[in-house]
Amino acid sequence: MSRGGPHDGGGPAGPDTGPVTTGRERGAARGWQDSVREYVRDLRGGVRDGERGPLLVIAGLIVIWIVFQGLDDKFLSPRNLSNLSVDIVGTGLVAVGIVFVLLIREIDLSVGSVSGLAGAAFAVLNVNQGVPEWLAVIVAVAAGTAVGAFHGFFHAWLGVPAFVVTLAGLLIWNGLTLYLLGASGTINIDEEGLVASLTSRHFGNDLAAYAVAALGTGGYFLAARRRRSRHRATGMPYRPGGEIWLRTGLLAVVAFAGAHTLNRFQGLPFALLVFLVVLVVSDYVLRRTRYGRRVYALGGGVEAARRAGIGVERVRVAMFMVSGTLAAFGGLFVASGLTSASPTTARAAGSGMLLINAIAAAVIGGTSLFGGRGSPWSVLLGVVVIQSIASGMGLLGVQDAVQFMITGGVLLAAVAADALSRRAQARRGRP
């Protein structure tokens, strides 16, 4: 059973994405110590065999936080961590769309330009033309969906490589964005409006953050138990109950610690809640639906997918539509944080940095550039790593040029690890 496939666990912060032992029947009555030992042994085995997973990413994130906290004690303050939880949303949404495309062994280089186009379309319609915000938002997101369908058509039905189609799209949509914004290149949006409130709104009641933490932890536990019962009834390998309790406990510690930290500042950010909902829905579609299984099957091999009766062209078009839609959605959150539509700044929607950060977030989290492996939850860890580096260097006053080089180095290391993992699996005769 491959990691990141439709039958993997999945869940907040990746506690159920570890390797599942398939060489022997599991689930016999064992104590807590046996469960802990086996869990640790599985994790160590996955690392030794070259499999990338949340363990290494979490370890790297801890090192990053320790280093930046040592250099500036404000890094782990509730204010900075709350701001970090909001800053990850725009890039994270774009990265989730990238995951859908990467799973079918393709790439979308246009997501940065599409996000900028959505922000520009909203600003022009709302600010310049007086269109109501809610309608301008719908048009902007629909534009992203249409762009994705355009890319998918050229790739799936005309056979143009996705790299070429989306590279052309990067130029086309970036040019259209600049044209819409006009000579000024920037349109400020209403700081009290609907879009601006996407990143400025917080749920001040402490119960909101704790409720989300409890709901996420309980949902993971119930899903894991249900999956265990289903696998046990069909004779498939399944996790012991003690291991499920252990994973749930670790998730609960992280979730409630995060909720407590957010409540020490302004409470649960609305943007973070939206991001978590998108992750849950995306993960459910990919792991728990027939359509999601088709996506993973296509990532495993085009010819095998065709022989299985999968409409390869339709799936490809749909994945690019998802990517375009989430890129547009993410662009609105980026515009919300800046309270303007302007692709000329380094961190804005439409900039090349947003594209690089989105791809890096997906790959660092564990989504393979070679297709067939990964999940939306992988984005969460990846984007936290990327944004933590940016936040820490921002606090230290490091110039953008250095940040770009460091982010590029991190991306290169993640891709190299992915390639080495594939090579190690090929030597062992695994797909």
TrEMBL record:
Topology in membrane: Multi-pass membrane protein
Renumbered residue ranges of the record's region Disordered: 1-30
UniProt keyword terms in alphabetical order: Cell inner membrane, Cell membrane, Membrane, Sugar transport, Transmembrane, Transmembrane helix, Transport
PANTHER family: ABC TRANSPORTER PERMEASE PROTEIN YPHD-RELATED-RELATED (PTHR32196), XYLOSE TRANSPORT SYSTEM PERMEASE PROTEIN XYLH (PTHR32196:SF32)
Known role: Part of the binding-protein-dependent transport system for D-xylose. Probably responsible for the translocation of the substrate across the membrane.
Major localisation: membrane
UniProt-recorded name of the protein: Xylose transport system permease protein XylH
Transmembrane segments: 53-71, 83-104, 111-128, 134-154, 161-187, 207-223, 244-262, 268-286, 317-336, 348-370, 377-396, 402-420
Key word Cell inner membrane present: yes
